[in-house]
Amino acid sequence: MGEQEQKQENLRIQKTEWIYSQIQKQREAEDALFEQLRQEQDVLDRLNQSVENNLERTREARKYNQEIQEHMNAQVYAMYGITEDKLQGIREYRNAYYQGCAFSLFLLSVVLVVLCGVLHGFQSQICLFMIAFTGIEGALLTQEKKRGKLMDILCKTLYLLMFPLMMVVFVCFELNYPEYHMILLVLAIFGLCVLVTGTAAYFCYNPYRKEKQKVGEAKDTLREIEKTARREVRKNRKSRVKSEKQQALLEKKETFLTKFRKAEKYPAEDIPTAAEGSEAVEEIPAESKAENE
Hints:
Layout: H1 2-79, H2 84-91, H3 93-120, H4 125-142, H5 149-174, H6 180-204, H7 211-265, H8 274-292
Helix pairs in contact: 1-7, 3-4, 3-5, 4-5, 4-6, 5-6, 7-8
């Protein structure tokens, strides 16, 4: 009975020791992983600081070049009596002309809708047609900055045609031309096509199309930074292991030399035997060979 209890106690002790050893191994693995992560984070921090410094220098250089270019342009234009306000007006002349024309046409379209409503009632066919075309004009006018370049030119051209076509329909209706119904049908289809074109231009416009390539380049740069961090960590680890081995080798050499000096001082007590000396001498070349491999 006592032997069985002793065996159970030994098994429990062995199990406890095994669990303790496993916990120690797990802690060592976690510590090694934490150390690796810390080293990678240090490398990433250094790379991040380097990138920020480069970006700051790039921004400063770009700003300086832009200021120099603007100052030079202002001086050259000033020689010919062109001020900055005039130059800005020249740049925005075409766009300002179109905006003024577009606003005037839209205002005239609203006036035409009111006129048709007063003359024939707001529920009449001609008034509903004018309201529909005015709504299409408003849709084209509000989507100016949300279209591509080619679609913007097309939509602006169609917008400028809307009010003259409305006037054609109004004149045909007021003068009772027989072609009124045919023109009304054709222009109704035309208005639907313009509306579909404007809607397609709005939804097909992608303001981030040019940024996709930059996003890909940025991802490649991030991958390169991560690879560089891992290589740096592996390099530091190998260097540390190599330095530890060299330090251990130097300590063994120092120990051997210390024993040898003691042997010279106290030959009867601490002189190393032939086996110890040969073993120490063999260990040094063997470790040097392993280090070289």
